[in-house]
Design brief:
The chain is α/β, with parallel strands linked by helices. Helices cover about 60% and strands about 10% of the residues. It is elongated and about 70 Å long.
Length: about 350
Amino acid sequence: MDAKRALKDIQAGRPAPVYLCYGPEKYKMREFIQVLTDLLIEPEHKEFAVSKFDLSEISLSSVLEDAETLPFMVPKKLVIAKNALFFTGAKESTKIEHHLDRLTEYLKSPAEHTVVVFTVDADKLDERKKIVKALKDLEAAVPFLSLSPEELQQWVARQAQQLGFTFTGEAADQLILYTGGNLQSLSAEIEKISLYVGTGAEATVDVIDQLVARSTEQNVFILIEDIVNVRLERAFVILEELLKQREEPIKIASLIARQFRIMLQVKELSKQGYSQQQMASQIGLHPFAVKVAEGQSRKYDIMKLSSIMSQLADLDFQMKTGKIDKVLGLELFLLRLAA
């Protein structure tokens, strides 16, 4: 069951007795649980009606015992249990024993007064496990997938509209690029931008550059974007900023190599007919990052990308062995790349 359908059922007063929330989009997952809490539990009852557990510290049996216990002074209970790694193929570092048969029995006759929500920080479930198949058969597994580039742009536009301002098209893309498409970061930055521009205003690229902080990885991502689009002056300004922040040139070169490796992977997967969403899953990136990398990779053929990777490997060796000044080596590489 997808999150939209699950929310419709909840809003219609038909919540499922158990939900298993998983997937890469943690912000949407937290939003879903908050909406579920607000619809299921009256504000004055939350202290007594909401129980939270960490399954790395407490057993599954204890969680289910709490679910079966009659609510105290409230009509409904919500039990939230995080770190439910036993639904995935990951090895658990905890010594806590989880008896999955206990959950199988609970699913046959769940407590009418309780909704149980399991969350797990994993992109996929282990579908070989009987309990996962059982939850999927009950439509209790709710995936929270990364938004596609188009959905992400629409989400940003809606958030801005709710706060009473708009983005120019380029500004919205710039914001997504600077935050890496992370919804939590986007939400915080959009709120900050709304306070800066005010109601009825339009946020431009200059506003994004002025207000939004960027990580080293995102700066390197943008540096490559500028080089690919022959914006040399801006690319060297970003490089200078990174060096002023005492970022190690070898680390910068390594991050540049990572981005070109992604471009090469995207190029090869694209030739095999993969969609952006499929490529994102295969490489382990946000779909928007794949979209940008796909656009960047169009400037080069596979042989050129392989040659650039070879040059970066050679630069890494020269920098580490002292055969070239690190900063000079980086600058010469970027100039050759833009030539």
